[in-house]
Amino acid sequence: MKQVVSVSLGSSRRDHKVQVELLGDRFEISRLGTDGDFQRALELLQQLDGKVDAIGLGGIDVYIYVRQKRYAFQDGLKLMNAVRITPVVDGSGLKNTLEREVVRSLSEKTGLLNKGMKVLMVSSLDRFGMAEAFYDMGCDMTYGDLIFTMGMPYPVKTVAELEEIAGRVLPELVKMPFQMLYPTGKKQESQDEAKVQQFASYYYEADVIAGDFHLIRRYMPGGMNGQTILTNTTTREDVEFLREKGAGVLVTTTPEFEGRSFGANVIEAAMVAIMAKPLEQISPEDYLELLGRLNFQPHILNLKSSSV
Amino acid sequence: MATHTEITESLMVFKDKYNKNERLKVMNKDWDRVVVIKATDIESLHTLTVWKGVVSLNEGTTEKPDLTVISDSETLADIFYGDITPTEPYNDGTLKILGQEDDIIRLDFISLMIWGE
Questions:
Q1: Which residue of A71, A148, A149, A152 to mutate against B (max B Cβ within 10 Å)?
Q2: For residue range A174-186, what is the model confidence (pLDDT) as tens digits?
Q3: What is the dotted CATH code of the domain comprising B4-111?
Q4: For a pLDDT cut of 70, what percent of chain B falls above it?
Q5: How many interface pairs between A and B have CB atoms less than 8 angstroms apart?
């Protein structure tokens, strides 16, 4: 049996382990959260190195892709460099390919995404592929990175402006401690009440809210009116949270196993274990080809009726 | 070592660059903050005030700043002239910023929007 482990800076309350079959191979996939403890994550990674088939890094981005440019978070690199033998991925390679396809697929095969729809991406620089796909299909975009990360009431409306701001700030911001830019550990279990109140209108005005689930959750107000949520890494508790807030449909981009939609890092790690080739030789086309064989489809859950 | 006058001039350059940037003024229209800049190796205190998106500069300090930026005179002048970014001196401890984490990131962001590539 192949073993894939995700080491996450997120809450240990979300830990789980499942066994699945992918293309004829049995996989044991587990997730270990360190509650924001960076040192503990480093130690876990060193312990697992050479003992499992692939490792995913969760709760932290290592690489951010903005078109042809790649930015690397220093904290993420420290974790990645702690692993010397086992392939280790952060999900960014998969996000850049899978999430573009999901947007295209939802647009072509469902009525959930249409040209002109208002889409709020609570953060978009961590999933530029999705951000670009929405824009290209003609959605009315609000890229909320500055709103929710910086607290600035400044919705970025175009991919061009997003790219321009990224070019100015990302080369330096990636050197900052990661927890200053993204909620880790226990912060993932709470909401930022001040920002929930201050920026609720961006949620209410959107038809679709997309992106990182921890961020979507952290700033979501009550009294939503049936919006579609496009994300991943959701648990049964998260589904209940969304239902209570009044969201209408949950679409998860990664496959669901035993009621859990796994993070992109986990799925990318499993795919790397299947491909069994050096990371530097894996291209976006390889991911796309394997995604086709795995036949991963977005999972759509109607939160009003609980029907899949 | 930079002089008090050099720090003042660097802060004036920073203030002018900021105030000419209409987008930054919109971004910070509701971020009213008082920032004190203090040198550790010479007598030099300044106060930058962000009010309704516009930045003003005064010499001296104020009682209850939201943020206090502390470093040696050379580093302060370098940062506000845009010769270096605040990130590395902040990470290596040469630059200390006292205040809320969100405000520290915001100040870094403003600096990068002014001086970034």
A1: A152
A2: 999 898 888 887 7
A3: 3.30.1050.10
A4: 99
A5: 53
